[in-house]
């Protein structure tokens, strides 16, 4: 019977060889799920930084062959065609007093920084003459435009209430919104000698409301003047997203003759 008993075989010390492969597999799975979790709530800023680091580490073909129009080519790039973030922050900081008081609203978009002023603050009802209360804000913005390589689109907006005859010199809201945006551009050109290629005037009338026109409060929001701040050169590519911490009072305004 003793001969029928299985002989015991001594195992070599340490973990089995297959444990190495198993440990590598578990580590890769863990990294995979961590990446899934990190991308589920995407931080655009960190995503661009990581994408840039991967590009530097592995290399990316800089000029791929193009057979058709590319779409979404900025998806994994650390560069973006927009107003530099530090410039947007600087402009918003420059108007912190107006933003806090509610006279001015700021909106960050893919096209650039949009500064929005209520129409009642900028112009009298049915008129295109700039109000005195609006001039200090125009002066502050006009002083910083020339030195930042920026272009500003001035957009005039109204509500959907037709202009009554005899109340205004304009027959439609299109003429009114056009005259208001042109008045702002002409004021800047005359006072600050801003080159014409940096400025544009557009009329939108009631075609782009931001609130309902069914209430007085909504119509008041729709009557507005918007400043869309964009790069002067539409082909500008800005690298990095570092915020300039230079205090606004250390920036010297441009000199005008």
From TrEMBL:
Domain OmpA-like per the UniProt entry, residue ranges: 110-233
Annotated CDD domains: OmpA_C-like (cd07185)
Transmembrane segments: 15-39
Name of the protein: OmpA family protein
Family membership noted in the UniProt record: Belongs to the MotB family.
Keywords: Cell membrane, Membrane, Transmembrane, Transmembrane helix
PANTHER family the UniProt entry points to: LIPOPROTEIN YIAD-RELATED, STATOR ELEMENT OF FLAGELLAR MOTOR COMPLEX
Residue runs in coiled coils: none
Organism annotation: Candidatus Desulfobia pelagia
GO CC, alphabetical: plasma membrane
Cellular localization per UniProt: Cell membrane
Membrane topology of this protein: Single-pass membrane protein
